[in-house]
C-alpha cells in the first residue's frame, strides 16, 4: 500500500515507510503526512517492514514498537546492523515510557516520539532527518571532488539559551554545559537580540513564552534574514501550546521539546539540531568555514581554503615551478576560552597578528574555525624558520608548523601533510 506515485513530474519524491499494526493509525498518519510532499508506503508488522525495505529502500522509517512477531526494537536492530540499511533514519513511535526510549536508542533508533503523536512535532522531526540525509549525500558528493582533511578537532558547540523562567533556564544551561558546550543565556528577547548581533551561535534554545514576547513570532522574524535563515532553533514549550499548535512557523531547522522533560531528551534534541546545523554550515557563506566556492572568509577577511588549494595547483603547474621555492606556515589558536564570544575575539586577534607579518606577494588563508595558513612564495626551509620566529615576535602565541612545498606533490597531499604537522605540534612532544 502506498499513498502517492514515485515522483511529481520529473522530481523524485522522498519515501517514508510507515510501520504500524493498527490500520486506524496508518490511515491517520497517511492523512496527516500527505501534504509533506513525500511518497508514503506502509507495512502492518515487522516482517512486512523488512520486506518493504529490501524491495523499495525508503529514505526514512517511521516505526511502531509494539507489534506481533518482530517488534520495533528488533526491526530497528536488524536495519542498523546491515551495511545496506544502517544509514536509513529510524524514528520510533510508541505509547510506552522512558524505559522504551532507552531500549530504542540502544537498538540504534535515530529518534523517538510518544503516542498519541503531535503532528507538528512529527513533521518537524521528519523534515529534520530527511534534510540531514540529503545534506550528507551532498557532502559525500562534494568530498569526492574535494578530498577533505581535518585541520583541528570539531570545536565545542556554541549555544545561546533565552528564557525568562529562572528554573527552566538554569536546567537547560546546566544540562548543555555538562555535554561540553559553550552556553550563554539571555533573560528575554531583547537580550537575545543583543547577543545574536555579536555573532550567531550553533544552536538557539528559546522558551516558547518570554516576558517580552512570544518565541514563535521572534523566530519568524529571524527567518527573514539570510544570516539566520538556517540557524537551528530548539523551542521549549508546554504540552498545551503543542496541542493547540501555538508554535513557530515550519521554516528552517526547528524542533520542539515539551517541558518538563528528562535531561536525556534535551541532549538528544540538541545533538540532532547541531548535526543538521553543521551540515548546513558547510554550504552556507554566512557562517564560519564559508563555502568551498568562496575565495575569502567573510568573518576575518582572510582568503579561503579554496583559494589556497587553487593557488597551490597553479603554482605546481606553472612553467619553472620545479626550481621555485614556496613554503606554507600553519598557525592555530587553540587556547582554552570561556565562551564563544571570547573564541571569536581570539580568532580575529590571531588574524590581525598574522596579517601583520605578511610580506609583499604573500597571503593569509583561513582553513578551519581557529586555523590559518600563511602562503609564503620565495621562502625556503631556513627562511621558513625565520618566519616562525617573526610570528612569535609579533605576538602570535598559538601553534605554528610549516613545510616547504615539494615539486610534483598534489595540493591535497601537501595540505594533509601540513595538517598532520600542525596536529602533532598542538599535541606537544608527548604525542605518539
From TrEMBL:
<dbReference type="InterPro" id="IPR043128">
    <property type="entry name" value="Rev_trsase/Diguanyl_cyclase"/>
</dbReference>
<dbReference type="InterPro" id="IPR050595">
    <property type="entry name" value="Bact_response_regulator"/>
</dbReference>
<dbReference type="InterPro" id="IPR001789">
    <property type="entry name" value="Sig_transdc_resp-reg_receiver"/>
</dbReference>
<keyword id="KW-0597">Phosphoprotein</keyword>
<dbReference type="InterPro" id="IPR011006">
    <property type="entry name" value="CheY-like_superfamily"/>
</dbReference>
<feature type="modified residue" description="4-aspartylphosphate">
    <location>
        <position position="207"/>
    </location>
</feature>
<feature type="domain" description="Response regulatory">
    <location>
        <begin position="158"/>
        <end position="274"/>
    </location>
</feature>
<dbReference type="GO" id="GO:0000160">
    <property type="term" value="P:phosphorelay signal transduction system"/>
</dbReference>
<dbReference type="Pfam" id="PF00072">
    <property type="entry name" value="Response_reg"/>
</dbReference>
<feature type="domain" description="Response regulatory">
    <location>
        <begin position="15"/>
        <end position="130"/>
    </location>
</feature>
<feature type="modified residue" description="4-aspartylphosphate">
    <location>
        <position position="64"/>
    </location>
</feature>
<protein>
    <submittedName>
        <fullName>PleD family two-component system response regulator</fullName>
    </submittedName>
</protein>
